[in-house]
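Re: How this chain folds, sequence and tokenised backbone to follow

Filed under: protein folding, tokenised backbone structure, sequence and structure records.

Contents: The amino acid chain and a row of whole-number tokens, matched residue for residue.

Body of memo: The sequence and its backbone structure tokens, given next.
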Amino acid sequence: MRRLPDLEALRAAPVRTPPLSAYTPAERRLIATLRTPRQVQRYLRALPYNWEHTLRTFRGAVAVGRAHCLEAVLFAAAILEHHGYPPLALDIESDDGLDHVLFLFQERGRWGTVARSRDFGLHGRPAVFPSVPALVRSYMDPYVDGSGRVNGYGVAQLDLLTPADWRLDRRNVRRVEQAFIDMPHAPLPMGERRYQQVLRRFQAFKASGRAVTQRNMRTLYGDQVRQWW
């Protein structure tokens, strides 16, 4: 795995933010209404999950009204860059090859994420983590499902990562996904002892047939659930 880029350099890198006149009225309303990471997270949690094999831009996701994890990153980045947040993305690598991509932001020196997922514990996090590795570790336990296991992460600024128009193109931008695969990642493996403990708890919970609720997740994962959006 290669050396990760400097986070401060990524935050300060030039962006290709279009003027508001380039957006449709519906897109401008979203930009005007969703002004914080928390507001964008709530909007995405309410949005239907996209099960199609697509990679729509911000414009595409707005048009169809649904998004999967990478589409949600493009959605969040396109909105929040108008409110002072650089278009940063965090890619979490897993042993099963099913990476999770999240919008990454910093507030008051702390790191958080905005994300959409099929899994309860893989949505966003408030900006309470002192470093990106600490933030990634908060995803380790909920990633464990019998095949998933966090082993590393990478950070990118979307305009540096790809020349694709991930904001306003009406076509799929599949090369964005390949760019995430090809970008540098740092190792951050989940320890074997911790993995086995979490796996046993997850398998017992799954066998119990209990519903995935906030209360049951606290029983399964403990107080860390309080830091999950």
